[in-house]
Amino acid sequence: MANAAVASPTATTISGRKYGSMNRDRKWALRWSYFFLILFAIFFLTPPIYMFITSLKTSAEISAESNPWWVYSPTLANYIELLTQNQYLIFFRNSAIVAVLTVLITMVISVIAAFALARMKFWGSATLATGVFLTYLIPETLLFIPLFKMFAWVNETFGIQLMNHWWTLIILYPHLTVPFCTWIMIGYFASIPKELDEAALIDGATWIQTLTKIFIPVALPGIIAATIFCFTVAWAQFLYPLAFTTSTTELVLPVGIVTTLIKGDVFNWGQIMTGALLGAAPPLIIYAFLMDYYIAGLTAGATKG
Amino acid sequence: MADIAARGSVAATGDSRSSLHKLMQRKSTIAFLMTLPLIVLILVLVAYPAGYAVYLAMLNKGMTRFVGFGNFDFLFGRETFWMVVYQSCLFAITAVIFKAIIGFVVAHFVHNIPSKGQRKWRGMLLVPWVIPPAMSTLAWLWLFDPSYSALNWILAGFDIERIPWTGETGWARFSVILVNVWIGAPFFMIMYLAALKSVPEQLYEAASIDGAAWWQRIWYVTLPMMRNIIAITALFSLIVTFANFDIVRILTRGDPLNSTQIFGTWAFRVGIESGDIPLGSAVSLFMVPILAVAATFILRDITKRGSEV
Amino acid sequence: MVSRKVSRRRFVASTAAASTALVAAPFVRGAYAAGKLSLGLWDHWVPGANKTSEALIKEWADKEKVEVTIDYITSQGNKLLLTIAAEGQAKSGHDMLSMAHWLPARYAEQLVPVNDIMEPLIKENGAVNGTVEYLGKVGGKWLGVPATIGSQIKGPCSRIDLMKQFAGIDVQAMYPAGAPPKADAWTLDAFLKAAEACQKGGHAFGIGLGTTSDSVDSAGAIFHSFGAQLVNAKGDITVKSDNVRKALDYYKRLMAFLPEDVPAWDDASNNKWLVSGRGALIMNPPSAWAVAKRDAPKVAEQCWTHGFASGPAGRFAPFIPFFWNTWNFSKNQAAAKSLMVFLSQKTSAEKLVVASGGYDLPSFEKFTTFQTWADEAPPKGTLYHYPNPHKHQTLSIAAAPAPHKIGEQIYTQGIMPQMVVRYYKGEAMEKTLDWAAKEIEGFMRN
């Protein structure tokens, strides 16, 4: 829509001379736009590209004093080694399970809660909506120390060991994702015309039916956006797995790479970069396919009102 | 339960006052039940531990004695603590400003080009935000490496002296902010791009006809239209940047001379690595009042939104 | 509790019988067989070293019919430390854990004393050095058995060619393979001159001044060489002493000849400095050399690991011992102790040393002359002096002899390197000392 105006400015009200100068201006503006976009793209893409370059090098080439931006003898050894290593695959599996289950739990909790908060006014609902948002202000860097002590208490009282298990992360992560997703969903639900659900209720639909038959289909872009957000957060979390898991069978990808590939004081940058690149791959792939939903949902949810 | 509610809602169409009252009651009961998981989650995983952190922060190092505000008192006397306060604010504010500026500028350029190519550019420019920060920080760490820095290699090609990226206070702070900006700017770009698209084209046309220069169009048309989203995005980002852990932890560990230490990383060092859990809790608690200031700004927005619901 | 008694009785009995019987006697029989033991060991960087320790432990486990699970935990990013802290707080975790330097003392109240096995082990394998005793024995109780895996001396590893070319020092003549060192002239002054010469030649010494352990350890050795203590054994702050001033002054002069970003170096930076061919000397165990052997063989051929320079107060080498410990909440303490004894046998220790390419350093005196160190090449004999076979330097740890709680904080927060960098950056000496004294005052909290 926007560029329709760029491509063919409405000439009706504008004199010919003016039209020409504007066209020239626009051409220059376009050139400058591309120029700066290329500059920014270089800035934004240099680290991932350098990751890729390094991942193709042997450790001998990495420690040689040759041009770091070129691969003289490319090798897939790093990839082969990582992907045939049981350990790395376990990290990947753990990350995948944790991320997927976190997404499921988060979406169930937040969609239902957001619906109740957006449509079913009840005593304290406004306070709760604000409270949900406030939890965003309490970062995990504040919570991990008390969580240590709480885990010890759980272990002493119930005999359930929460330390050093990947599934503990599934319990913990929702508190990072639910508030934001609920907030996005409230925004999204609020944008749905009231007449829609009022009509449904009058027709005898239950609240639950209204949610599943009307709100969820209509708000699907928002739900997809929240899902992707949630997946990204769960996949990228660093502090909790660093603090709460240890065994190589329990680690998730980011922490696994940082703690097992960087060994003591010896560097193994080819593998580290390979691991990091492979670790970044799932969210990248998801974005490649669902970016439009994500952007639409996120911006709609966040900009409403 | 849901069925009962449905019947209730049908009954409500008949105009009995008491049944309407019942419906309201039931509706609120259902609504409460629907939000219960959320409430439990927040109470157990956020509210309780946060309260517990306050309690922990008031114990002595061995956690055997209640010392009230002793730990806070102790912190106020430490030079490092004030460095951490200063650095956390410096990093968060500087990084957010640059993220906002870069995001705004890039969004503008993307908006300028024909829509056929926009998707491609948007996708490319979003990459830093998609990669898990711990992973991309590793790439930066490797780019900054003292012995093998690929950035210094390029600079050497221009005869510029080696830059101690993470080695010298000023540069180390610069590097931390740079990585923060790199990761966060795409998010701003996406939000602004959406906002730009929602600005009616007629406004620009009208401004052009009035003879407004490009900067006037931005100042008088774009910015006022985007005010809301700029505020929300900036405040969100402020919270995330302020409470950051992984970037500093991986990039500098707070070195040199604690000059890149921020609340999250310092609490980790004091509380976990040096075994002083109460002091670590006390350090991390200081994030709350500072974030609360940001919260008041956001709250204004939220209430506005709430009234529209 | 019961199982602990069983094990004690057994060990008392076995030591009474014969010291060699220590390993032979199975710790459980018949009905007691099986049981589980979870280990948290230091993740070895040497390829294959973990495999060897695993095989060794399997051998023991099969004989004792214990089901063993091993976690190799890296010390990178303080992950090992973090794990220990978490387990100490949560009061549950591995049955046997590797703890480096100060950690046994930090968790003294939660660890099972192992005097019952340490005393016979010392009798059999020879004494341990003072630093091991300082860190591992608190209040007369041995808190763990000094571990072969991971213990290391971080002495200089020099480039033979560069030292000769720029500093005129023949490190091989100074520390000849297979013979006692002739290093009387190898003093801190000579070290400084060599650092200057090499820096001028474009191959600066690579000594980190960050806050990670390599940097702290080097600083510790230099401070010790001047007799500089930040806190004395009684726990008094002795920052404002002439020896500390001398050490700082020396370090300031040295730092001028180091790469400018040393304040941000971590434990891998010095390795990279050497492997990349830029450095003439680093302070590190032979890991850098081993990496060079793999990635930059030409550099490796010129590496020589040797003793540190001597200062007014003596000749000190940075040293980090690891310990094997068991928690008092661990469920299988007897098995853990039995495994510790097994791993401390000469045959086990030698296997571990060989597997680590000479990196691991057993703490017992009789274990410092294994053939591996003489054989490792290229160049042949490069590691001969690594285990300090002629006891020509004192193995020390930074911040000793401070009381453990204070020493640990001085160490983990990298106070010494921070002092050096502050002073070097132009802060007045007294201001730096004030700063350090104030920081250390904060460590007195309890």
| SS-based class of chain A | mainly alpha
> How helical, in percent, are the residues of chain A?
over 70%
What is the CATH class name of the largest domain in chain C?
Alpha Beta
In the CATH hierarchy, the architecture of the largest domain in chain C is: 3-Layer(aba) Sandwich
Work out the helix count of chain C. Answer: 21
Strand element count of chain C = 12
Instruction: Report the β-strand fraction of chain C as a percent range.
Output: 5-15%
Main sheet: strands, sense, barrel of chain A = none
Q: Supply Rg of chain C.
A: 22 Å
Distance, first to last CA of chain C: 30 Å
Write down the CATH topology of the largest domain in chain C: D-Maltodextrin-Binding Protein, domain 2
Radius of gyration of chain A (CA) equals: 25 Å
CATH superfamily of the largest domain in chain C: Periplasmic binding protein-like II
Strand content of chain A: under 5%
SS class of chain C:
alpha/beta
* Oligomeric assembly: heterotrimer
Secondary structure tally, helices of chain A: 15
Q: What's the β-strand tally of chain A?
A: 0
Any overview of this molecule?
- The complex is a heterotrimer of chains A (305), B (309) and C (446).
- In chain A, 77% of the residues lie in helices and 0% in strands.
- Chain A is mostly helical and 305 residues long.
- Chain A folds into two domains: 2-55, no CATH class; 77-303, MetI-like (MetI-like fold), CATH 1.10.3720.
- Chain B folds into two domains: 2-56, no CATH class; 76-308, MetI-like (MetI-like fold, Orthogonal Bundle), CATH 1.10.3720.10.
- Chain B is 79% helix and 0% strand.
- The longest helix of chain B has 40 residues, at 17-56.
- With 446 residues, chain C is of the alpha/beta class.
- Helix content of chain C is 45%, strand content 13%.
- Chain C has 21 helices and twelve strands.
- In chain C, the strands form three sheets. In chain C, strands 1, 2, 3, 6, 10, 11 and 12 form a seven-stranded mixed β-sheet that branches.
- Chain C is globular and about 60 Å long.
- Chains in contact: A-B, A-C, B-C.
- At the A-B interface, helix 1, helix 2, helix 5, helix 6 and helix 7 of A face helix 1, helix 2, helix 4, helix 5 and helix 6 of B.
